[in-house]
Amino acid sequence: MPINRRSFLGLSKGAVAFAAATSATGVLASSKIEAKPKKKRSFIGACPPSSREYNTRRPGPTRVMIIGAHPDDADIVCGGTALKLISRGFKVKFVSVTDGRMGHHKLTPDETAAVRRRETLEAARRMNLDGYDIYGYPDCGLYPTEEARMLVARKIREYQPDFIITHRTCDYHADHRATGQLVMDAGYLLGVPHWCTEAPAQRLRPVILYMSDSFTLPRALRPDVMIDVDPYLDSLCDGLDAQVSQFYEWLPWDGGREEKVAALGDRSDIKARNAYLVRYVLGRKRYDARRFADAWKEEFPSLNLPKHMEVFEVSEYGRAPTEEDLKLFCGM
């Protein structure tokens, strides 16, 4: 069975050994199969393998860039993971590609954009982020244009992340889908030196992960990375609490839960405030803990099933992660 160059992109050592055990006639050496480590995973990546000379990370802390469409997407979906990574010495930057100006029912769009910018800065301070950037494209008006792709790529090159987390392109909001498309379109181009010359090309391109979503078409999310975020819920709620316009005004109005917020009063009761945020803002984490329970038990049979979980899928548009990459990210 011939194996072409594409067959080797992103294969882990175990998978490469398995492929190498295939003879020209397609017959496998049974002893090699039995020696293959159990549950060894391999991933395909769009980016070509770096040479040994460049297949090393730059010095300093591991960097993670979480690129959402709006100034709360990273917080809601990935905030627990961000806090866990920061506690382990990682540098984590949140990004909002749009200005979030449509996210309110009373404030004007300009007022909303200004308020949300202030709120993200306070959230970044509370969560000890390495910055919270807002690129300023119009909320509800983001498209995967060449200009936007160039800006996103330049910002990625300037930060030089080891990992990127972003939306899948099957998500409920058009801005989410456009953001995911922009990151995917930039993935290979990050290493092209004569494109986007304002920032140096990334010789070792980042691993790209997708945020969790509930969509099933064209297919449901694959749980490649599962993070127990139960220990970080209180700290995450403290960060979410900074975004008053979203979690206590706009989203309750949009979801018909204004009476639940009114019952909190001035939010001085931290226990009640956190219980509200966990139930009505962070519900996806409970949902993911339930829907991926079997995957967790198979992957971590000796660990208790978390009540709240953040789940990510490896994107083929970045560098294919090795087992070492995944262990680094998960802290195992």
CA-atom Rg in angstroms: 21 Å
Uncertain runs: 1-37
Order of helices and strands: HHEHEHEHEHEEHHHHHHEH
* Percent of residues in beta strands: 5-15%
Largest sheet: spatial strand order: 3-2-1-4-5-7-6
Straight-line N-to-C gap = 36 Å
The tally of strands reads 7
What general form does the structure show? globular
The whole-number mean of residue pLDDT values reads 88
Biggest pleated sheet: 7 strands, mixed
- Helical content (DSSP H or I, runs of 4+): 40-55%
Class by SSE composition: alpha/beta
Our count of helices gives 13
Quick rundown:
The chain is α/β, with parallel strands linked by helices. The chain has helices at residues 13-20, 30-35, 73-87, 109-127, 146-159, 174-189, 233-240, 244-255, 258-262, 270-280, 283-291, 293-299, 323-330, and strands spanning 63-68, 91-98, 132-137, 163-166, 207-210, 225-228, 309-314.
